[in-house]
């Protein structure tokens, strides 16, 4: 799997933070989505995930792929995520290019924030997740 | 979401404080997110829980030496790989000239192209709207172009065929949707959305105004009104607050959003001679800049910056915590910078053109290495170039007459090419022979601007060329850095 090292690294930091934080471990879930379903089979993703999930505790972290490019496209369209193929498929930066977007989604399935390469910082994500939990607690009292 | 959570070091608390008060209260398109994941993912088993969906990428987004692009665009924007291929020119229609409508004009600037320096397409919108500024969405697939007079926003697809953009959507209920903001000034790419700083309001069409956010799908998200004396929204410097707006730009690694101020609809649609002869009208110009907590969209500090501070240019260097602006009415360069204690300050740093009455500086462009600042002066048609290697002490090193009037300047990332347009506002442009309307390309070798091409927009019956944006078929990643000091 030719995953973006930066995004994977930040998610790994989030996962590590959740190991020592029961609230995060219980309430946060990470989902990594492949844009290359032809290459990234569930078996490959499972093998890839092992290096990140040596610690069995912490929050859940799922690695997802689609059954086909057609199915992937419907997901990308739902997220308004553009992905283009590079002219040179063997480009050292990978066969695809796109802007990085990481979505914070609440229990209701609503996007609450979108992080890019300029804002994807584990400290910020954790603060946002905990803010959502505070909001949830407040709403539950009403 | 109001309670901040300290997560360790200073940078963390800066980023984390006031986490997502804006985004939490105003979710983006909640309904369209409901089902696709559940239907299609092979391995994800979704149960009700808060989670982050990380879209795994195959991109390495370190800066590429081949990357070009213009220097003054949003840091969240996908970047052009290599040299720009097109210059998009948002052009004001002129009654009796061609079709008389505002239009997006596409000019080929590919080196060696048979049509280099020529118009390759033109796409008109409905009528005249006081075409002004625009901007791309973060994925650079759409170009949003705003009309100051009509408050309409035109969305073009620039991805399917970058040589021939196509109008796909028009937002024509801006004032109603946004709660009374009018005069959309441009569009600034944020992740998955655009930030539209406005110039005026529907109530009195004065200068009090707001920042507005739309999703990339064209749906309204939220409105943030600029702080006023009556409602400072928690900002310090309330004694200066005038509520005026103009530009809005972000320094992501400092969580800093900076806004500037101009004037309202009543003034920018008035004849310029009549305006300057009206002492009461001349009182209604912005004299402030505002520093915001970007993440929370919370105004933090109002600076007194007299004389309509217009364009904002953040420095790009990882340790360069400062931005430049120019004040149109007082012909000054100002620096907004973090002092030794990390506090944001604003300071006048230079006079632009030591000319009685001023030179009406309008657009500015900062080179990618933060060393050179180009300042367009509408009053005398000159571009003045400053060495800003020491941002506290700019020195003018060059000047060039571009035309009888000049407004916008766009600079390539490699600093070798600059493009200039002439129009300021339909009723502020000069009259008679001084009303030159052009797009002019120049090369810059560090010492001198040399003409590359010249397009006469009047002779071509196109109109008044205003904002320029670069297009290309080759895109890369955003040029941003994550938290640093």
Structural write-up:
The complex is a heterodimer of chains A (142) and B (485). Chain A is an alpha+beta fold. Chain A has a single domain (5-141), classed as Glutaredoxin. Chain A has 5 helices and 6 strands; from the N terminus they run H-H-E-H-E-H-E-E-E-E-H. In chain A, strands 1-2 form a two-stranded parallel ribbon. In chain A, helix 1 (5-19) crosses helix 5 (122-141). The model of chain A has no long low-confidence stretch (mean pLDDT 87). Chain B has helices at residues 10-16, 21-25, 36-40, 174-178, 265-268, 272-276, 279-282, and strands spanning 50-55, 86-92, 103-108, 118-124, 131-136, 142-147, 153-157, 166-171, 181-184, 188-190, 193-201, 210-215, 220-225, 248-251, 256-259, 288-293, 298-304, 309-314, 322-327, 332-338, 344-351, 361-366, 372-377, 382-387, 395-401, 409-411, 417-421, 438-444, 449-456, 464-471. In chain B, a hairpin with a 5-residue loop joins strand 5 and strand 6. Chain B is globular. Chain B starts with 9 loop residues before the first helix and ends in a 14-residue tail after the last strand. At the A-B interface, helix 1, strand 1, helix 3, strand 2 and helix 4 of A face helix 1, helix 2, helix 3 and strand 1 of B. Strand 1 of chain A pairs parallel with strand 1 of chain B.
List keywords for this structure.
heterodimer, A: 142 residues, alpha+beta, Glutaredoxin, two-stranded antiparallel sheet, 6 strands, B: 485 residues, Methylamine Dehydrogenase, Chain H, 37% strand, disordered N terminus, disordered C terminus
Largest sheet, spatial ordering of strands of chain A: 1-2
Assign the CATH class of chain B. Mainly Beta
Structural class of chain B: mainly beta
Unreliable stretches of chain B (pLDDT < 50, length at least 5) are 1-66, 479-485
Which class of chain A in CATH terms?
Alpha Beta
CATH superfamily of chain B: YVTN repeat-like/Quinoprotein amine dehydrogenase
Number of discrete helical segments of chain B: 7
Strand % of chain B is 35-45%
State the total count of DSSP E strands of chain B.
30
Instruction: Please write the string of helix (H) and strand (E) elements of chain A.
Output: HHEHEHEEEEH
Helix content of chain B: under 10%
Determine the mean pLDDT of chain A: 87
- Average pLDDT, all residues of chain B: 86
Large-scale geometry of chain A: globular
Radius of gyration of chain A: 16 Å
Please describe the biggest sheet of chain B, giving its number of strands, its sense, and whether it closes into a barrel. 5 strands, antiparallel
Strand content of chain A: 15-25%
User: What is the CATH architecture assignment of chain A?
Assistant: 3-Layer(aba) Sandwich
CATH superfamily of chain A: Glutaredoxin
What is the overall shape of chain B? globular
Q: Find the CATH topology of chain B.
A: Methylamine Dehydrogenase, Chain H
């Amino acid at each position: 799997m030719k995953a973006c090292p930066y995004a994977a690294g930040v998610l790994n930091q989030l996962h590590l933070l959740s190991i020592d934080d029961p609230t995060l471990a219980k309430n946060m879930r990470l989902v990594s989505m492949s844009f290359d379903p032809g290459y990234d089979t569930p078996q490959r993703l499972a093998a890839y995930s092992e290096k990140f999930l040596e610690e069995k505790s912490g929050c859940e972290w799922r690695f997802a792929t689609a059954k086909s490019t057609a199915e992937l496209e419907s997901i990308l369209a739902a997220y308004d995520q553009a992905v283009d193929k590079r002219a040179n498929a063997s480009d050292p930066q990978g066969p695809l290019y796109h802007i990085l977007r990481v979505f914070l989604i609440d229990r209701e399935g609503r996007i609450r924030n979108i992080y890019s390469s300029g804002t994807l910082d584990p400290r910020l994500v954790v603060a946002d997740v905990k803010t959502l939990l505070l909001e949830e607690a407040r709403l539950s009292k009403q | 979401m109001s309670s901040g959570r300290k997560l360790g070091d200073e940078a963390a608390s800066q980023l984390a404080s006031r986490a997502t008060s804006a985004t939490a209260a105003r979710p983006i398109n909640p309904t369209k997110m409901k089902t696709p994941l559940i239907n299609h993912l092979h391995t994800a088993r979704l149960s009700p829980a808060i989670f982050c969906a990380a879209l795994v990428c195959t991109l390495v987004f370190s800066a590429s030496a081949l990357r070009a692009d213009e220097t003054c665009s949003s840091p969240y924007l996908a970047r052009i790989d290599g040299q720009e291929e097109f210059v998009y020119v948002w052009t004001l229609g002129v009654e009796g000239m061609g079709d008389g409508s505002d239009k997006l004009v596409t000019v080929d600037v590919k080196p060696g192209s048979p049509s280099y320096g020529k118009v390759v397409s033109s796409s008109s919108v409905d009528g005249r709207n006081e075409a002004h500024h625009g901007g791309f969405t973060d994925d650079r697939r759409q170009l949003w172009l705003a009309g100051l007079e009509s408050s309409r926003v035109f969305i073009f697809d620039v991805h399917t065929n970058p040589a021939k953009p196509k109008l796909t959507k028009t937002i024509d209920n801006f004032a109603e949707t946004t709660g009374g903001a009018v005069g959309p000034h441009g569009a600034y790419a944020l992740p998955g959305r655009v930030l539209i700083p406005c110039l005026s309001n529907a109530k009195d069409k004065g200068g009090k105004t707001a920042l507005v956010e739309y999703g990339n799908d064209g749906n309204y998200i939220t409105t943030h009104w600029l702080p006023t004396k009556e409602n400072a929204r928690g900002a310090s410097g309330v004694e200066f607050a005038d509520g005026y707006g103009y530009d809005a730009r972000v320094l992501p690694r400092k969580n800093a959003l900076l806004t500037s101020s101009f004037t309202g609809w009543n003034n920018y649609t008035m004849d310029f001679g009549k305006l300057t002869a009206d002492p009461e009208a001349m009182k209604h110009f912005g004299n402030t800049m505002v520093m915001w907590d970007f993440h929370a969209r919370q105004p933090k500090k109002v600076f007194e910056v007299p004389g309509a501070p217009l364009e904002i240019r953040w420095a790009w260097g990882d340790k360069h915590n400062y931005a430049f602006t120019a004040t149109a009415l007082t012909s000054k360069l100002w620096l907004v910078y973090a002092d030794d204690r990390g506090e944001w300050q604003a300071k006048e740093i230079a006079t632009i053109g030591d000319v009685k009455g001023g030179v009406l500086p309008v657009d500015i462009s900062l080179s990618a290495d933060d060393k050179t600042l180009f300042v367009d002066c509408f009053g005398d048609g000159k571009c003045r170039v400053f060495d800003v290697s020491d941002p506290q002490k700019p020195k003018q090193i060059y000047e060039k007459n571009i035309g009888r009037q000049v407004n916008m300047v766009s600079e390539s990332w490699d600093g070798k090419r600059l493009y200039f347009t002439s129009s300021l506002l339909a009723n502020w442009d000069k009259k008679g022979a001084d009303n030159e309307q052009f797009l002019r390309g120049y090369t810059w070798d560090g010492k001198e601007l040399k003409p590359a091409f010249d397009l006469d927009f009047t002779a071509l019956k196109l109109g008044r060329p205003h904002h320029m944006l670069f297009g290309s078929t080759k895109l890369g990643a955003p040029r941003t850095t994550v938290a640093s000091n």
